[in-house]
Every structure is written in structure tokens, then in C-alpha cells.
Amino acid sequence: MSAGLERPHVWVPGTGATPLLLLHGTGGDEHDLLALREHIAPDAPVLSVRGAVSENGMPRFFRRLREGVFDEDDIRFRVDELAAFLAAAEKEYGVTPGAWTAVGFSNGANIASALLFGHPGALTAAVLLAAMVPYRDGPPAADLTGKRVLLSNGRRDPMATADHTTRLTDQLRTAGADVTDLPHDGGHGIDARLLPRVAEWVTG
């Protein structure tokens, strides 16, 4: 394995034009979201990455101080770490730099939006499922012009609340991103009924 790719991950080659970066939720791993490929973009190359932080044995992408309160210094460090990993993966697997569409759930969605703000060139687009606001006092200044973001949160989600949805949408749009809001009536989860619309958005 090439230097920089020691982090646990799964690579699935594909012929599609849009490579997917899959980012799991707390307690998941690099296998958790692989089934989404068949629903979203069956031909897509896929890189699925395990979070580098352990919380009581559960993988995460960054530390939190308590439920709903994130360690923002650690977020910045982990974003830099993930961006470096992606650069190594692009060389190893022949992916055009910055061509990724991230698909993240919960903690994975949070690191995806933080990656957009911290390294705008690392992603082309992001699908944020059950996403919260990574930076309480506002994200790093970034120009997200031309970046596409789909935000799909549940109206009954006790964690990724309506306030989180509104604030994150405002932050992304203020930075120039083209944000599509695709809510559902459930809680902190992925609504399978919306996956055809997610697929249209990803490939459209």
C-alpha cells in the first residue's frame, strides 16, 4: 500500500464519471455505507473511509466533548488529515483531484461539510445526511462557488435539528455553495424513499 493510505478503507473501482467518498456515522466503519452505491450511482468508483478517532470503541471522524458539542480544534486537524489521505488515494487509484462527491451520514456528514469549508478543492459536491453544524461560531472562510450540496435531515431528528439545518444551509450558501434541501419526516436516519431523488441529484 502506498504511503499515506494506511488508514482503513475500501476502494471499489467503477466506470462512472463521479467518484463517491463514503463517510459513515458514529460507530460505523468503512463497510457501512457501501450499499448506498447501488441506490445512488451503481457504476461509480467508491472510496469508503473509516473514521480515525475512537470513542469508547466506536469509530468517529473527530472527537466531541459531549453529546452535540464538538472538539473544533480536532475537527480542523482531522479535516487536514482526511484531505491528505484523499490526495494519496487520488494518486493510488487514478482519481482526478477534487472530483469526489462525498456522501456522509451523521458524523460523516459533519466531517464532509467541515472538509468543504477547510479544503474546498478536495470535493466537487457533498450529500449530507442527518447533518449538524460542525463549527458553533461559524466555519472557516471559504469560497464554495460552484460546489453542490444536498442536505437531507429529518424533521423529527432530535440531534440534527431544524436549527442545525437552517444554520448549516445558511453557512454553505453564504460561502457560495448551491444547496438543495431535501427533508424527510423521520428522525436521525436515512430515508430510503428519498434515495432515487438523491441519485438524480448526484448524476444530474
Helix and strand layout, with pairings?
Layout: E1 9-12, E2 20-23, H1 36-40, E3 46-49, E4 53-55, E5 58-60, E6 64-66, E7 69-70, H2 72-93, E8 100-105, H3 107-118, E9 123-129, E10 148-152, H4 162-174, E11 178-181, H5 195-203
Parallel strand pairs: 2-3, 2-8, 8-9, 9-10, 10-11
Antiparallel strand pairs: 1-3, 4-5, 6-7
Protein name: Phospholipase/carboxylesterase
Organism: Pseudonocardia sediminis
InterPro entries: AB_hydrolase_fold
Helix- and strand-based class? alpha/beta
Q: C-alpha Rg, in Å?
A: 15 Å
Strand content: 15-25%
CATH fold name, please? Rossmann fold
At CATH level 2, the architecture is 3-Layer(aba) Sandwich
Oligomer: single chain
Question: Order of strands side by side in the largest beta sheet?
Answer: 1-3-2-8-9-10-11
Integer average pLDDT = 95
Number of helices: 5
Tell me how many strands there are: 11
The CATH homologous superfamily name equals Alpha/Beta hydrolase fold, catalytic domain
Coarse shape: globular
Major beta-sheet overview: 7 strands, mixed
Organism: Pseudonocardia sediminis
Protein name: Phospholipase/carboxylesterase
